[in-house]
Sequence to fold (383 residues):
Amino acid sequence: MNLELTETQTLIRDTARKFAKEKVAPQARTFDREEIFPTALFKELAELGLLGVNLPARYGGAEAGVVAYSLAMMEIAAACASTSVAMSVTNMCAELIHAFATEAQRERFVTKLTSGEAVVGAFALSEPHAGSDPAAMRTTAVRKGDTWVLNGSKQWITSGAHAGVIVVWARTSQQPGNKGLSCFIVEGGTKGLIIGKHEDKMGLRSSNTVSLTFEDCTIPADQLLGKEGEGFKLAMVALDGGRIGIASQACGVARAALEATVRYTKDRQAFKQPVAEFQVPRFMMADMKVQLSAAELLTLRAAYLKETGKPFTREASMAKLYASEMANRVCDKAVQLHGGYGYIDEFPVERYFRDARVQTIYEGTSEVQRMVIARETLKLFNS
Ligand SMILES: Cc1cc2nc3c(=O)[nH]c(=O)nc-3n(C[C@H](O)[C@H](O)[C@H](O)COP(=O)(O)OP(=O)(O)OC[C@H]3O[C@@H](n4cnc5c(N)ncnc54)[C@H](O)[C@@H]3O)c2cc1C
Fold:
């Protein structure tokens, strides 16, 4: 793996960094306090190519690869984790549709996502009774003539109330477990798609999280994505890539927390000297930096493997597991090193701390990541 960035990767990272600094960061606190979904930002992210970083130019993407995508996610997340999760899910939906769609579906839906016409994408897999175990889902899709009719409920759907394109999983046969699942593309506003209550969350407060209910929601038959019965495979493929997005988000949030802590401790005086002069805070910041760098390397390695067409399931889980747990540790230390000021919203570290918490839960909990890593590692020693 080459540790030097290419010109394209540098350009995407710098573009995202400038946009994050000038347009996203100044509003992040207000977005968080007032739970504002930053609709206007997504049009601009689309114009910069950041809603389809790893997609071909033909479908409106930046064609810049997975490493560039990861770098861009880190930059946007450092400014606002809520904005970055919607960006991540949109890229994930666009990539999944691109990978499994017919040409007509690609032209219609991938372009709608990368251009911002859909505002954002949403990924509807989890249900009230099926999170870590999506094969337990109960939503059904029944073929009726030239249509599919969906019934059931999805839970925790990021950007669900704002998404113009939603990738939805449903059971299409009574075959047990994961065998009878299929994947569909549902457009926002389709009759029978009911947007539920917006969750009042600890963090990511300007990210929209809702339940979605399907009541005889009827979509054209050609909105089946991939083959009937292939849905579980599509979900696993999408989640592998999605985990690189969340690992990148964790790195971005942790970096912002470390930078804020360095600034604060150099300025804050205690016992007549800056807090940053004491050895204990210095060692804490040294540990934060080491852990952040380790997470960045794991994340960029997983991105590089995906970009170069190599297996990356285990590496994506390792990156997501380590980076999300690292972000929680780093944000905790950032609050600690701010003392009482770390606990109030005048300084951003309390937001970083709240935003980091969900990272060990969504796109597969830390326990699920350990299951994947163990399974893939044991496979290596089977022969
Ligand atoms: C803010 C937010 C946004 C989200 N966005 C989306 C989204 O856009 N789309 C979507 O589909 N989902 C989304 N989710 C759902 C998320 O992916 C699930 O919450 C997550 O997968 C865990 O599922 P669960 O909440 O049902 O927990 P459960 O599966 O009930 O797990 C509860 C606990 O049991 C542990 N556990 C479960 N099974 C095992 C096992 N076999 N071994 C060891 N431990 C186990 C888990 O690790 C966890 O600690 C979101 C969640 C949140 C909070």
In short: The first strand starts at residue 121 and ends at 124. The chain has three domains: 7-119, 122-231, 233-380. Residues 233-380 form a domain with the Butyryl-CoA Dehydrogenase, subunit A; domain 3 fold (CATH 1.20.140.10). The first helix runs from residue 7 to 34.
